[in-house]
Amino acid sequence: MSLNVSPDLLSVAERGEVSDAEFVDCVRTSLPYAWEVVSSVMSDLKDGTEFADHEIPPPSEVERGQLLRALASDAIRGGLERHFGAKLAFQNCHRVAAFRFSAVGGERYQAFVSARGQLLNQSPELRNC
After folding, report:
1. For residue 116, with 0-12 CB atoms within 10 Å meaning exposed, 13-18 middle and 19 or more buried, which class applies?
2. In 3D, which of 113, 62, 111 has the Cα closest to residue 92?
3. Name one Pfam family in it (predicted).
4. Residues 6 or more apart in contact with residue 97 via CB below 8 angstroms
């Protein structure tokens, strides 16, 4: 299961739309490691840069699973992007990058999300991640 959904939040969802704030709070409490990583790269953007990334492998498979669940879900990733106001990109089961929306489509963004970028970020020690 990706998220720990409280009975109250489930009831709200059953009645209709859930607010971004409610959804993001559920993500924050359900996936604390993923929240920490995303918060960190998003915070680094506040320094005026157009790009920030996190390249440290998770300490365990539990944390790696949280990161994968958060960034593989369109709903979760989209909620995080709207909450923090920037675009997320992902490589290698642990490399998370944030780009200002104005940088999406730019050279650095295109290089990061390209097949070439993915291949250049491979190594034998990351093969099973």
Report:
1. exposed
2. 113
3. KH_NucS_shadow
4. 41, 51, 52, 53, 54, 88, 89, 90, 91, 112
Q: How far is CA 111 from CA 19, 40, 114, in A?
A: 34, 22, 5
49-104 pLDDT, tens digit per residue, is 889 999 888 999 999 999 999 999 999 999 999 999 999 999 877 789 999 999 99
How long, in residues, is the chain?
Answer: 129
Closest by alpha carbon to 86, among 103, 101, 104, 76? 101
Number of other CB atoms surrounding residue 15 within 10 Å: 8
